[in-house]
Each structure stands twice: as C-alpha cells, then as structure tokens.
C-alpha cells in the first residue's frame, strides 16, 4: 500500500510539473512592409494573399513623388524603411549611391531565370542597371502604341498608319474636321517621338558626364515631323491630362488617334473622370515605324521599378516579394490591366 501511495504522489507531482511548465513559444511569422502607389495596390494584395500562411505583409500606399523624402527621413532616423518599395526609375540611381545606400545590390542574388526573362525583351531591365550592377526590377515596359478611334476612322475613311510618315499624313487629314491626333505637352512627347526615334537624349560617355545631342538627325526629324502638324492645329501642345484639352477633345469624342502608353486604355481613355470615352470607341495598333528603322521601336512612359531595401531584416523574402510583384504573370495580366 505504501508503494502505491508513493507512486501516486510521484505521478501527481509530475502532472503538476507538466501542467505548470510553459509551452515552447511558436516562432512568429516573418513580416514584410511594402510601399506601393495606388495602381499597384491590387498587385500587392495579390502577393499578400499568396503568402498569407507564411508571411505577414503590411501594405502602405505612398505617392511616387513622396518616396525620396520618406527614404531620406528613414536614413536620417535610422528606422522606418520598407522592405520593398515601388518607385520611379529615376530614383534608383540616388538610392543605389553609397551616400544613400537604400537600394540593395541584387546582382549576385537574382535568379538566372529572371535575368534571362528581362533579356527576352531587349534590355528590359536597363533602368535598374548601374555600372553593370542591378539595383531594382522593372515593373513593366509601358510600351507606346497607336490608339485610334474606330468609328471616326471609318467615318473619315482613314487608314491606320504603320509608319511615322503615314501618321503625319493621316493627322494632316484631320485639318478642319475638329478632330485631334493627340496632346503631347508632357512625357508623351518624349516617349512617342523622341525615344521612339532613338534621339540620343541621354548619353553617358563616362560616370561623370551626361550628354544630350539635340542636333542629331534622330532628334531633328522629330521637329520636322511635328511642327507642320502643330501649325495645322491637328495635334495639341497641351498634355493629354490638361483639363482644357480633355474638355475640348476626348470628353466630346473628338480624339481621332493618339500615340500613348498601353495603359491609356484602362487609366485614361475609359475612366469617367479622365477622357470618359465610350467602350469600343478606341482600340490599339502597333507603334508606327520611323523611316529606315528595322523595327517599330517604342518609347516607354511609366513602368516603375521595385527596389529591395538594403536594411530589410528578411532580404531573401524581400527579393522574392519584389520578383513576384515585377514578374508574376497573374499580376501582369490582372493588376496592370494592359
């Protein structure tokens, strides 16, 4: 009987010990903070959903124009950096500079498949490469296309131009009709004409020199093409987003055609607060080709970049997030709407 009592006491003591012991703490999920602008929220939400069981993702909406200031503040206070940010390609050089140091060098950690994927589209990630080193991933190429008004072309008996000379000739046929061939008083002028013409806007013969050769034939032919159209009043020197231009032309269905980025369709032509043109009015055709060019080279308007923070506590996961946001097929087909 004594043995049974001792055994019972021993078992009870063991039970108390086990009950009172703290259970091993479960490892917390790693977390990532993403800074994205409004058009990229949907893409960020897709990523957040895809990794919900593995990673806690915080999405912060931020305008591209505010990113530099906020990164500088984080650099000063030594806290508050995002793990990944979406921004303007022009910011990358500053963030990659040693004096700033925000952008992580991705050269040695990028998967070969990603590098090869960009290579399929020419130098598709060129905005992210500095002195042979990769500091970001291009979100999209924002290719320029020819948008044209199907009913108007049919009404006026116009043919969709395939060359820049044909574009100019078609635009000239709009003289006196009240229709326009687009507004180019913003970056559209560079992307649609100067860049597509391969005008050497920015040449970098060395690390300390930036050279613009405005007298190059690839630049002067742009002026020669556009000046007669401007004089005839068939293209507008205002921006496509100018309230006066929108009221006078697109809001009244008076845009016969325009060169512009692929994203014009979803974010400019359709929205009621922008051009507000009825569905089925405008459609896209390939970018017209310049005389003597082998291909119809397209300028790019937009197509920001994803930058991985050098301060991220989870650099591998941050790179995976940036890669997903920049290259995932679902994101590219659904989130961008191109």
- What is the strand content? 5-15%
Number of helices: 13
Helix content: 25-40%
Mean pLDDT: 87
Alpha-beta classification:
alpha+beta
Largest sheet strand order: 2-1-3-12-6
Distance between the termini: 84 Å
Radius of gyration: 28 Å
Low-confidence segments: 1-21
- Sheet with most strands: 5 strands, mixed
Shape: globular
What is the count of β-strands?
12
- Reading the helices and strands in chain order gives HEHEHEHHEEEEHHHEEHHEHEEHH
Written overview of the protein:
β1, α2 and β2 form a beta-alpha-beta unit. This protein has 13 helices and 12 strands. The strands form 4 sheets. The protein has a 5-stranded mixed sheet with strand order 2-1-3-12-6. A 3-stranded antiparallel sheet has the order 10-7-11. With 338 residues, it is α+β, with helices and mostly antiparallel strands. α2 packs antiparallel against α13. The N terminus is likely disordered.
């Amino acid at each position: 009987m004594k043995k049974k009592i001792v055994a019972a006491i021993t078992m009870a003591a063991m039970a108390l010990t086990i009950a009172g012991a703290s259970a091993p703490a479960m490892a917390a999920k790693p977390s990532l903070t993403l800074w994205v602008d409004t058009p990229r929220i949907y893409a960020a939400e897709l990523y957040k959903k895809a990794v919900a069981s593995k990673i806690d993702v915080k999405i912060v909406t931020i305008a591209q124009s505010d990113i530099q200031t906020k990164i500088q503040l984080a650099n000063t206070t030594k806290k508050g950096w995002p793990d990944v940010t979406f921004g303007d390609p022009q910011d990358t050089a500053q963030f990659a500079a040693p004096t700033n140091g925000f952008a992580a060098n991705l050269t040695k950690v990028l998967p070969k498949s990603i590098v090869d994927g960009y290579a399929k589209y020419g130098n598709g990630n060129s905005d992210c490469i500095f002195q042979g080193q990769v500091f970001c991933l291009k979100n999209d190429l924002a290719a320029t296309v020819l948008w044209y008004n199907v009913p108007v072309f049919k009404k006026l008996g116009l043919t969709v131009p395939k060359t820049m000379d044909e574009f100019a000739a078609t635009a000239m046929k709009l003289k006196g009709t009240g229709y326009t061939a687009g507004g180019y008083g913003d970056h559209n002028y560079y992307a649609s004409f100067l860049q597509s013409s391969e005008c050497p806007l920015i040449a970098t013969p060395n690390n300390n020199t930036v050279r613009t050769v405005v007298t190059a034939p690839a630049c002067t032919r742009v002026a020669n093409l556009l000046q007669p159209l401007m004089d005839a009043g068939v293209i507008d020197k205002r921006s496509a987003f100018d309230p006066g231009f929108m009221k006078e032309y697109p809001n009244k269905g008076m845009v016969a055609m325009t060169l512009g980025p692929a994203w014009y369709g979803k974010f400019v032509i359709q929205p009621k607060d922008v051009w507000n043109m009825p569905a089925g009015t405008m459609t896209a055709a390939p970018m017209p080709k310049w005389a003597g060019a082998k291909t119809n080279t397209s300028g790019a308007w937009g197509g920001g970049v994803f930058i991985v923070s050098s301060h991220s506590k989870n650099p591998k996961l941050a790179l995976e997030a940036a890669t997903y946001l920049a290259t995932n097929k679902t994101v590219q087909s659904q989130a961008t709407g191109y």
